[in-house]
Amino acid sequence: MLWPPHAEQNPALAVLFVLWYRSAMTENSQNIVAWRLSVAPMMDWTDRHCRFFHRVLSRHTLLYTEMVTAPALVRGGARHLLRFDVAEHPVALQLGGSDPSELAAAARMGADEGYDEINLNVGCPSDRVQSGTFGAVLMKTPDLVAECVSSMQAAVDVPVTVKCRIGVDDQDPQVVLPDFLSKMRDAGVTQVAVHARKAWLQGLSPKENRDIPPLDYPLVHAMKAAFPDMSMSINGGITDLDQAEGFLSGGLDGVMIGRSAYQSPWDVLGDADRRIFGAENPCADPEDAVEAMRPYIEAHLAEGGRLHSVTRHMLALFAGRPGARAWRRVLSEGATRDGAGLELIDHALQAIRERRAA
Fold first, then answer.
1. Rounded distance, CA 240 to CA 242, Å?
2. DSSP 80
3. In CATH, what number does 286-357 get?
4. Tens of pLDDT, residues 101-149
5. Domain-by-domain residue ranges, the chain?
């Protein structure tokens, strides 16, 4: 998204621009374009500081919040969890829950805050979400999911989407996934992100569920062929832009990348605007990205925030490059200390330069 000059210093201009941008997205279906590449919602990782950093690297990639539970918003009054910077657009809110009216209320809160999309989590396999009857366990109750998304759509004007697995436990994905997608389509959902793995709710930890169940990319391609009217994004095991381009050229509408976007942010997002969206990349190299983050970090510190809250998401920026270890070491050791500021970033950059010169 092209950002108007001085928008950060002029809140009124920023708000007007976002309203225009969201209108243009709706009128021109540019929300579908943003789906070409997205960073997956990841608990403890994709907070607002992470998303701002990712937005510095790519102006067009769709960003997702961590999952926010509908009960926390509606019953717990945790509206602060919805906070985001206007520069994060396009940005989507992922909700967890299974009560249609509660999800509708939470979706309305998200839309009121300005999110471009509201996504329902039907894929997280953790024990906590199972006990709350949401996440991947909802693959067992597609009629309830359909009721939830229908209520959410009735409450908001922005797209309501679903992120799901191909099945759970002993379900046969060849049977379960088509039925699930058919019910989502009948409920009015037009965009679905499919994690191409089963989730084993008994016997595997959440971490193991990200790696052990085998990937079934052909099934997702088959679902796109069976549901050509649905915009389908693929997720799971995707590590680089070469793979992303392959999925897009193979007929899928979008690619969602999770851990690799976090652990190798420059490799995944630094060239994404050019390769995936045909636009100019905002940063020339990782050091350019660090410079672009300075105003945000300075504002965060001025509000009383800690340096580590932002820089923890930047530790892997130089992954695979000379000096990457020195960059991580300086920030890891110093950013949690009281009073740590921008001078520590200067020190970390200097450590990189010294390593290159050695």
1. 5
2. G
3. 1.20.120.1460
4. 999 999 999 999 999 999 999 998 877 665 667 899 999 999 999 999 9
5. 7-277, 286-357
* DSSP conformational letter for 231: E
Q: HSE-up of 319 (CA within 13 Å, CB side)?
A: 16
Longest dimension (CA), the chain: 62
Q: Which of 50, 124, 148, 164 is catalytic?
A: 124
What is the DSSP-derived secondary structure letter of residue 14? H
Cα angle 285-286-288, degrees, rounded to a multiple of 5: 70
Token pair in block for residue 269: 């997002």
Contact between 152 and 188 under an 8 Å Cβ cutoff? The reply is: no
Structural tokens at position 328:
């991580």
Question: Per the structure block, which two tokens stand in for 25?
Answer: 């997205």
Domains 7-277 and 286-357 share a fold: no
Superfamily of domain 7-277: Aldolase class I (3.20.20.70)
Question: Nearest-CA neighbor of 9 among 89, 115, 86, 116?
Answer: 86
Distance CA 136, CA 207 (A): 14
Taking alpha carbons only, the member of 137, 131, 122, 52 closest to residue 86 is 52
Q: What is the pLDDT of residues 292-315, one digit of tens each?
A: 999 999 999 999 999 999 999 999
Clarify whether 124 is annotated catalytic.
Answer: yes
Provide the whole-model pTM.
0.90
Q: What is the DSSP string of 258-289?
A: -HHHHHSHHHHHTTHHHHHHSS--S-SSHHHH
